[in-house]
Amino acid sequence: MADIRAFRGFRYDLGHVGALSDVVAPPYDVIDAQLQQKLYASSEHNAIRLELTRDEPADDEHNNKYTRAANTLREWLAANALRQDTARGLYVYEQEYAVEDSTYTRRGFMARVRLEPFGKGKIFPHEQTMSGPKEDRLKLYRATGFNLSPVFGLYPDGESEVFAHLEPFIRSAPPIVAKDHLGVTNRLWVVTDSAAISKVIGAMGPKPVFIADGHHRYETGLKYLEERRAAGEVPDDEAAPNFCLMMLVGMSDPGLLILPTHRLVSGLASGVTAPQLESALAEHFDIVERTGTNAQAAWEHIEMDGAQTTLGFGTVADGQWLVAKLRDLSVMAELAPDHSDEWRGLGVSVLHKLVLDRLVRDKVGGTPMCKYVHLLSEVTDAAAKKECQLACLVPPATMEHVEQIAGHNEKMPPKSTYFYPKLLTGMVFNSLKKD
Questions:
Q1: Torsion of CA 312, 316, 320, 322, to 10 degrees
Q2: Both 148 and 220 in a single domain?
Q3: Does 415 map to a domain?
Q4: I need a labelling partner for 418 at 20 to 30 A (CA). Which of 236, 383, 394, 405 fits?
Q5: Are residues 247 and 267 in the same domain?
Q6: Residue 32 CB coordination number (10 Å)
């Protein structure tokens, strides 16, 4: 069972640092150099100075971005810019956001969740991880002794029974509010009522948790726990390193949105045209619509169709768009024999295993390389600027796919899901050294 706990989080003293909007930051993996600089300029207390500290030319083993983050954190704690809450609580976190003219509100709560190795409990990953980000986060964990940003976890809760125990407390008290650089409104309430916390913990007990985002941070937590145990710094199962900071959202939450991750493909042998692409696809796909220069019409067809095996393609060389539907999914059993039927049926699996790695590679030539974007406007802008040779529109995976595939310890292909918006760093921090 998932073992969750209320905890005494560390939060900004807004009387000391000013507006929360000025001190929060996105997680490290979506921050480029330009945004990093903007966040640095927004406040001397912005969480970017912990989450993704700037490199300096003179950095060495003893003085680097990790040691600077640790020094900054110590200074903020000493100056009471960050204070630890006096009572254990669950931290209700709500995000109101807009995507393509529709507004959504996603709600969950942050808690400490006991770390457990994948495959040995009730916490399931759904995507593969890379060594580089895990090494980076581990160095930061070692230096600071803190979870600076939460892992994003999902749990089945069709009747919303878990969040119902927290609902009265967000109706009766005003939230702390921050608006981020994307215009997302972030709201936080602290619930310290022991009866409500007990009910939430009890309701969560039998439920599995699926990691939506933050796989690298979760695996880093496991490695950090292993190191601290070896150093004799984990006296018992209740010690802080046994847990990680996690945001928990019910899978049926109406504001839970998975955006598609479209592919912008380069590295082909030549500028592929629509007739060339149709010829390459003909063995396995039917062309169900040609929309000319209208990418929006191609995407609307995919959305209306609803099938994972319906894909859209824009050939940049001649500016044409088409929609193709796989005739028979059985070919995927040959291409991905070690995977489940659910995995083989994903749009991203069909695109990579069949279209890019076989048909395009064999019939067009070259080595396809992908850049990933989420909005149709990003696709059309890149195509207009000829920043790719082939644009691929992919239907988003669903929560059912995440639950089915992760539930039997199988990982989805990279960039299968994008849970928007990202959870902010700076709403609450979790110490890995003290309760």
A1: -10
A2: yes
A3: no
A4: 383
A5: no
A6: 8
